[in-house]
Design brief:
Chain lengths: ~160, ~290
């Protein structure tokens, strides 16, 4: 080989390899990063509405049945969001900055879906809660569903 | 030349003898909690505070009382599998109370071998005789399970458990970390945090030998078993009020209504079984920690 053709060969092969890997990777970096942001937004909405209920249960906000029903209904609606656009392959913790998604989300997809169903059930149970006490009791059950999903499917803070 | 080899030989034997001496396991106590009537009801609370179920129940088990073992704890030194500690022949039914106490507080098996500190005896070393006796009485009421304990996945030199004897000289102590004037509630908080609840085992960083760096007490650590970080819970980072903390320990909700998860979910579940005064004591302890 001439003096230059060996380094040129190495660069060419290396680039081909990198390009193949990138092609095979699936979703683009931007796509998975955006999906992680969207999931965080979904959870922030859940947290906001849980706060409405929680403040009522704690007595920091006056009991208002319309607000209770709206908050509970919104949490149930958030629990029903379809997974296909949000939980993209390759968006687990370690693969994307900020993600805390554990790989069990994909290896145990049925279990993951079941947790959202439990959340929806617990949220719907709060619709029509008659007083502060009932909201408190319902919050207990809702909190258990949050905890159960996070225990298995969410990793530690980054 | 022969003389040099003789000298080396003598020193080697002396060295081995010295090593054997300083790594010897703690002796079995004669008696534990003399005159104390074991209280299995308190034992159930000790069981909750110490979180035995969280490691010793089978990974996929929802039943908090079947301590079949098998749960994997990944670390820089290998993967450890929690043993079966159910009350049966595959577990600990044949252990005496002194053997149980020595296991918990000195990290020594009934056969006289050192346990790996993946078992947090460096925290349990602070347990009182009475709590050990009560826990023993409670565990005797739990069901037996026939799952054999799984061998740890550890490579040489960590397979030489005798070496842990040296490690213990540096890292096994029952000295309190937080000292000074403390009322009963703070003392209880200290006993729970530094002892039974063994918070430091996750929340404090470790040095190269895997020992807790007490100069960074509860200031957070990388997750030993995977991604992410276990948070700093000293006042340097934790600005929650005592009420916020107690509410979190009771409901799992943070002040902004995020919910606890990961390994902490089981901790919150266990803390919920204790009297509220215990959760308050833990919160008060955390608030008086020096910010690091």
């Amino acid at each position: 080989m001439t003096f230059f053709s060996r380094p040129i060969c190495i660069v060419a092969l290396g680039s081909a390899l990198a390009a193949t890997t990138a092609f095979a990777a699936g979703h683009s970096e931007k796509a998975v990063a955006d999906a992680v942001k969207a999931r965080h937004a979904q959870m922030q909405m859940v947290g906001y509405h849980t706060g409405v209920l929680g403040d009522i249960a704690k007595g920091e906000r006056p009991f208002d049945s319309a607000m209770v029903d709206a908050a509970a209904g919104n949490i149930a609606a958030l629990a029903k969001l379809e997974h296909a656009t949000l939980w993209l392959e390759g968006s687990e913790q370690g693969a994307v900055e900020g993600s805390r998604a554990k790989s069990e989300i994909w290896s145990d997809a049925a279990g993951f879906t079941a947790k959202f169903t439990d959340m929806q059930t617990a949220a719907l149970a709060l619709v029509g809660a008659a007083d502060q006490g009932a909201v408190g009791a319902g919050m207990g059950a809702l909190g258990e569903t949050c905890k159960a999903c996070h225990e298995t499917f969410r990793g530690p803070k980054n | 030349m022969r003389l040099i080899w003789k000298a080396i030989g003598i020193f080697a034997v002396l060295g081995a003898g010295l090593f054997w001496l300083i790594t010897r396991p703690a002796a079995l106590p004669d008696q534990v909690a003399i005159g104390h009537t074991a209280d299995a009801e308190n034992g159930a609370l000790v069981f909750a505070a110490a979180g035995c179920f969280s490691c010793h129940a089978a990974s996929d088990s929802a039943d908090k009382t079947v301590l079949a073992g098998g749960h994997a704890l990944k670390s820089d030194f290998g993967t450890f599998y929690a043993p079966n500690i159910s009350w049966g022949p595959f577990g600990i039914a044949e252990w005496s109370l002194p053997e149980f106490a020595r296991a918990l507080r000195d990290g020594v098996s009934p056969e006289g071998r050192h346990y790996y500190p993946a078992f947090p005896y460096t925290s349990y070393s602070r347990m009182t005789d009475e709590d050990v006796a009560d826990l023993y009485a409670y565990m005797a009421t739990l069901p037996a399970d026939p799952t054999p304990s799984r061998a740890h996945d550890v490579s040489f030199p960590f397979t030489v458990t005798r070496g842990i004897g040296i490690w213990k000289l540096a890292y096994l102590s029952d000295d309190p970390i937080l000292t000074g004037d403390m009322d009963e509630t703070l003392l209880r908080g200290r006993y729970l945090v530094e002892g039974l609840a063994h918070c430091t085992e996750c929340h404090t960083s470790r040095d190269a030998l895997g020992g807790i760096d007490t100069t960074r007490w509860l200031a957070g650590a990388p997750n030993q078993s995977g991604d992410g970080r276990i948070p700093d819970i000293t006042p340097a980072s934790l600005d929650w009020s005592v009420d916020d903390l107690v509410n979190y320990f009771t409901t799992g909700f943070t002040p902004d209504y995020d919910s606890v998860g990961g390994s902490m979910a089981a901790v919150v579940g266990n803390l919920g079984l204790l009297p509220e005064s215990d959760r308050t004591a833990i919160a008060l302890y955390l608030k008086v920690l020096p910010a690091r």
